[in-house]
């Protein structure tokens, strides 16, 4: 199991409960049944129920599927943070970033752009602990993505092709193409990752 990045000290049960509660609140606010969301996300009703109750840790693949089913960018599932009055919906100060901790996979996603479920463009700082990955099974979702490796190295797989990207390397691909990524080095990897809903 990967070791979480040193920049965060998650409490797994708390993280799972918070993520699940956000997903349930978003589903209910849209007036959608558990069955409707589970079917649209291609997940079992029981698994979605367990996620909502904080009993299961969703993978990035499951979260991307749930976000699509809810008609939201994945950033819409992040912990909500109130922006400072002077920043409003334009600026995000470093201490006000919304964070999504995928503690089981060793990945932390910090939202660098202002919160907003309707935002078409979201920029993240993704921190991958040594051994961290999105899993062996690729996933796909709506949109387009691009990124720049700031530190360390990652293995990016899109369709059946893989690349090892090091500091300074960058990428872009359609999110509908099956993809996955993993830390390819011994230390933390940091990537600026952009998701655009098309």
From TrEMBL:
Q: Which GO terms describe its molecular function?
A: DNA binding; DNA-binding transcription factor activity
What InterPro entries does this protein map onto? Cro/C1-type_HTH (IPR001387), Cupin_2 (IPR013096), Lambda_DNA-bd_dom_sf (IPR010982), RmlC-like_jellyroll (IPR014710), RmlC_Cupin_sf (IPR011051), TransReg_Diox_bact_type (IPR050807)
A Pfam family that this protein carries is Cupin_2
What's in the keyword line of the UniProt record? DNA-binding
Alphabetical GO CC annotations of the entry are: cytosol
- HTH cro/C1-type domain span: 23-77
Q: Tell me what this protein is called.
A: Cupin domain-containing protein
